[in-house]
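testing teh design pipeline on a random one, pls ignore if ur not involved
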């Protein structure tokens, strides 16, 4: 026997048991956990007073509660020819059907809601919910066309969907992460459309999403008990949900909002893509969608869907748009070629600017060098024309200039070396100068003086 169950969890567990199994379970519970047994009794007694036996309430979730001999095959009900049974679930039996009035050739599915659920919720409520579903018109939502009554059964006529459940598809066909996310976006579009029409799904799970050969989903089996709380005298609500995908507030029996479906979508996304590394975009999206408190989740399915589309297109998700480096990285991932070209142009521009600045600095230095050289030449001519130095030897003048060059801190070293090398050229012999000079040229004496 399971232990550590709350009253709500125990009641939910009993939904899947036959009446005989329920009695056996309760007998063991009375011996092993009397306190929990006494807590569950008010719920069972209230049900017994209301409907005469426990299966009246258990019926709409437990498959066993649908009578095994209930069969509608080959019946003509209103304008529909009922064909073979295609499934049984918590709410009733689903049959394939076709119109028999020769007006439209349609392949349909007819769901017969079991009488116990009808007695609990009321026909008016069921038809009201069916009417809400009939207003939904989306390519990824199974369309509801009609409804009616047959004997004690309320039936709903809907689109017959061909395909396999999401679980079957993922188990049998390997899909890439990109394909899974594209498929999840389509499921989100269906749920967002329902929310825009004030309709919750309240039972999102892989079995309620059929996938065709083109990987297009059809969301079906909206939980029409979503707005109804069946409470007993101890205020314990009657719950119908899928344990793995239901939100915390749905498990507690609290009022459901759009955030309840968002939680289930986050769980469905985790089911589809598996556990993701911490701090990745996909992990952050799943964590936000499945926050325990509803006000910490996405405010709408559209916001959740937008972040998934950002992941698909390599754009920043909403939670990280304030991080500049992350935004730049996403831009590079999204447009690698243009980003590489832009980066190359930026590097070229920086390199050109640096070269231009360096060249400008070099020109400034060369200008200063030229000015210094001009100053030295001017100084040399000044000394050569003075009366005091008119008999100064060329050698002395060169030595004086050499010293001025060496003592000038503004002249670069390589310029100084070139100038000093030029000044080391030997002075021509006086006889050779005399032989090659014009008669009017000044003569240089043996002492190296100019005459």
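output:
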């Amino acid at each position: 026997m399971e232990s550590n169950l709350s009253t709500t969890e125990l009641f939910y567990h009993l939904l899947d048991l036959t009446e005989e199994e329920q009695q056996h379970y309760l007998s063991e519970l009375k011996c092993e956990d009397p306190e929990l047994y006494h807590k569950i009794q008010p719920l069972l007694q209230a049900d017994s007073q209301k409907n005469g036996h426990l299966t009246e309430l258990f019926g709409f979730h437990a498959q066993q509660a649908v009578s095994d001999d209930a069969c509608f095959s080959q019946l003509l009900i209103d304008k529909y020819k009922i064909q073979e049974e295609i499934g049984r679930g918590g709410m009733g039996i689903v049959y394939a059907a076709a119109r028999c009035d020769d007006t439209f050739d349609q392949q349909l599915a007819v769901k017969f809601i079991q009488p116990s659920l009808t007695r609990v919720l009321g026909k008016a409520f069921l038809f009201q919910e069916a009417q809400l579903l009939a207003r939904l018109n989306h390519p990824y939502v199974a369309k509801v066309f009609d409804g009616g009554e047959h004997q004690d059964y309320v039936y709903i006529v809907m689109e017959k969907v061909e395909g396999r459940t999401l679980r079957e598809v993922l188990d049998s066909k390997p899909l890439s992460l990109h394909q899974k996310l594209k498929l999840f976006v389509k499921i989100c579009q269906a749920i967002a459309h329902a929310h825009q029409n004030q309709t919750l799904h309240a039972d999102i799970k892989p079995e309620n999403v059929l996938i065709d050969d083109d990987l297009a989903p059809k969301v079906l089996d909206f939980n029409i008990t979503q707005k109804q709380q069946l409470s007993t005298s101890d205020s314990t609500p009657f719950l119908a949900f899928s344990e793995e995908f239901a939100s915390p507030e749905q498990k507690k029996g609290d009022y459901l909002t759009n955030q309840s479906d968002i939680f289930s979508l986050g769980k469905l996304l985790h089911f589809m893509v598996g556990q993701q590394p911490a701090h990745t975009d996909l992990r952050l999206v799943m964590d936000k969608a499945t926050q325990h408190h509803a006000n910490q989740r996405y405010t709408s399915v559209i916001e959740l869907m937008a972040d998934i589309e950002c992941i698909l297109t390599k754009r920043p998700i909403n939670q990280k748009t304030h991080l500049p480096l992350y935004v730049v990285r996403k831009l590079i991932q999204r447009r690698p070629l243009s980003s590489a070209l832009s980066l190359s142009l930026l590097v070229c521009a920086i390199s050109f600017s640096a070269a231009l600045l360096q060249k400008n600095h070099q020109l400034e230095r060369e200008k200063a060098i030229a000015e210094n050289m001009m100053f030295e030449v001017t100084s040399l001519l000044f000394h050569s024309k003075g009366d005091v130095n008119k008999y100064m030897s060329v050698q002395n003048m060169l030595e004086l200039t050499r010293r001025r060059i060496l003592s000038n801190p503004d002249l670069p070293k390589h310029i100084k070396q070139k100038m000093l090398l030029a000044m080391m050229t030997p002075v021509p012999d006086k006889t050779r100068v005399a032989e090659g000079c014009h008669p009017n040229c000044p003569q240089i004496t043996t002492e190296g003086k100019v005459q």
